[in-house]
Design a protein that fits this description.
The structure holds 2 protein chains of 2 kinds. By secondary structure, chain A is mostly helical. Chain A has 11 helices and no strands. Chain A has one domain. By secondary structure, chain B is an alpha/beta fold. Chain B has one domain: Rossmann fold. In chain B, helix 5 runs antiparallel to helix 6. The chains are: A mainly alpha, B alpha/beta. Chains A and B meet through helix 1 and helix 5 of A and helix 3, strand 5 and helix 4 of B.
Chain lengths: 276, 271
């Protein structure tokens, strides 16, 4: 199958998956509530830490309190891109043996599932994302999401968000291919997902981690999920540093995709199709 | 020969929990792995346009061999060429020329209208728009599913869904159709409709069909040739009448119960 047909098929799959997702509007509302709740909780917590830290030491860690609060809102807004669990539809197919049907489609299974899972994530989550950010903007000044540091910063932020989407999707696919080992169960994939969540900065901004870890935290792949876009937005990472940071997101995406394809091709040789 | 299998072997690993009082705990640390042979060197030929019944007890290896032929599973050893190609080596190219219907699985998208699923399949199989329209109209008319196109799949009855599955499997004009228990769970009227449709499709379009089923009426109504498989080996290959001569010579006449029930349903205006 040539490239044009693959693109058309991908687009078509993307559309139907979005349409499916849009049927579950209540999940978007509940997701927003959870996101806002978390963000507020973190805002209160950080305000306490910043205000009552010894000799105001928290104020010298590279991020001011308003920056941290904006970071929290952006991270919550981007949280939907991250995979908390493997795409439900694909998971079902692995578990009950419908992988068989997927393999009867004249399409590379990796491409097929990449499109499906990323579309599944976008289905309702952009509503949740936009709603969370909107609520953040409307908060009282002390807890509000501030304006971007600069116009250039905003542009870099948007570009980086797109890359974050690709990066999150390719990592989700890597985890999915690991999960193709039916007999391993959920353990390994859940550990990977938890690790990525912590290292993405969603729970604690990476800048606030110990200094000796900063180089590692910058180079590791998961910062690209939320930390890099958020830092570009609040300006703790200047637009001049955007190119290498976004480049890093690209490199990790490529690596994840390559690894995912490799594992999948190997797994498909001795795949277990469950059930009769 | 369109389909050619030679000495295909495939075995699976089965994990067994140790027996006894502490079996559950022991099983968490060490597992007894046994190899189970699903296919023990099976081989046959099927020519273009044939409609072959594929029968055998549960666990005989029917589904496994269908999965090998549709390129899903790679066998441990043996040769298989279908339409001149090795299914698992050229999977993408191979599956664009075959259709599959698994009675126990669905290939339609659960939450969206049937027509949307067909549209996606059109793009996946790269069916030209003109041909797609003609083919869709033709299939929906013969199967009587025009009225169902705008209904989400989850709200269809089993019989309605099965008919839609058939449309989905045949949209791209496959040369070969694998049917794995297509009539499972269907009522008599739907069964008869399905059989008639398959027969017509085979006759008109010359689609080669391999029908796996436990419903012997399906076989009797559709298949000239049957293959019996057991323990992963081919045990009989020939006419259905041949089996009857050997195993049930005294049976002279049999009531077609499906036709009888279907007539009753129609009489009572239940469908």
């Amino acid at each position: 199958m040539d490239f044009k047909n693959t693109c058309r098929a991908s687009l078509s799959l993307f559309r139907i998956r979005m349409a499916e997702g849009l049927q579950y509007r209540v999940s978007a509302i509940s997701g927003t509530v959870v996101g806002v709740f978390w963000a507020l909780l973190e805002c209160v917590l950080f305000t306490v830490f910043y205000t009552y830290s010894e000799h105001g030491s928290w104020n010298n860690n590279g991020m001011s309190l308003p920056q941290t609060i904006s970071y929290v809102w952006i991270a919550q807004g981007l949280f939907v891109l991250q995979t908390m669990s493997i795409d439900g539809e694909i998971m079902g197919k692995i578990n009950n043996g419908d992988v068989g049907i997927e393999l009867c489609r004249p399409m590379n299974l990796y491409t097929h599932w990449f499109v499906k899972s990323s579309a599944g994530k976008l289905g309702t989550s952009w509503i949740r994302s936009v709603a969370t950010v909107l609520v953040g903007l409307l908060m009282p000044a002390a807890y509000a999401l501030g304006a971007p540091a600069s116009f250039a910063g905003l542009l870099c932020f948007l570009l980086s968000v797109i890359m974050a989407f690709v990066l999150c999707s390719s990592f989700a696919m890597l985890v999915t291919t690991v999960r193709l080992n039916v007999t391993w169960g959920d353990g390994p994939s859940h550990m990977l997902l938890l690790l990525s969540g912590i290292l993405s900065g969603t729970y604690l901004p990476l800048r606030l981690w110990p200094d000796f870890m900063q180089t590692f935290l910058y180079l590791q792949p998961f910062g690209g999920f939320a930390d890099i876009p958020a830092q570009l937005y609040i300006g703790s990472m200047p637009p001049s540093a955007a190119l290498p940071a976004i480049g890093l997101q690209c490199i990790w995406s490529t690596l994840f995709i390559a690894a995912g394809r490799l594992i999948m091709n190997r797994k498909l040789k001795n795949i277990i199709v469950q059930g009769g | 020969m369109q389909i050619k299998l030679r000495e295909i072997k495939k075995s699976f690993k089965v994990y067994k929990r140790p027996e006894g009082k502490w079996g559950l705990l022991k099983g968490a640390f060490m597992r007894n792995v046994t190899e189970v042979e699903a296919l023990g060197g099976i081989g046959f030929d099927i020519a273009e346009g044939e409609l072959v019944g594929y029968i055998g007890p549960n666990g005989a290896g029917k589904s496994t061999s269908v999965k090998v032929m549709s390129g899903i599973l790679t066998p441990d050893s043996g040769e298989c060429t279908i339409l001149g190609k090795i299914p698992w080596k050229n999977r993408v190219e191979h599956v664009s020329k075959i259709g599959v219907v698994f009675g126990q699985r669905s290939q339609l998208w659960w939450d969206v209208p049937v027509a949307d699923s067909f549209d996606v399949l059109k793009d996946i199989y790269a069916i030209p728009p003109g041909d797609y329209k003609i083919r869709l109209a033709e299939l929906t008319a013969t199967l009587g599913v025009e009225a169902l196109l705008r209904i989400p799949v989850r709200q269809l009855s089993l019989g309605q869904r099965m008919r839609c599955e058939l449309v989905a499997a045949l949209l791209h004009r496959p040369k070969i159709l694998f049917l794995d228990e297509p009539t499972i769970g269907l009522d008599a009227v739907s069964k008869l409709a399905l059989r008639n449709f398959l027969k017509e499709e085979n006759r008109k379009q010359g689609v080669t069909m391999l029908l796996t089923t436990h419903d012997m009426d399906d076989i009797e109504a559709l298949c000239e040739r049957v293959m019996v498989i057991g323990h992963g080996k081919l045990l009989y290959d020939g006419k259905l009448a041949g089996l009857q001569e050997k195993y049930a010579p005294e049976v002279v006449m049999k009531v077609n119960t499906d036709a009888m029930i279907a007539a009753m349903y129609n009489d009572l205006a239940l469908t």
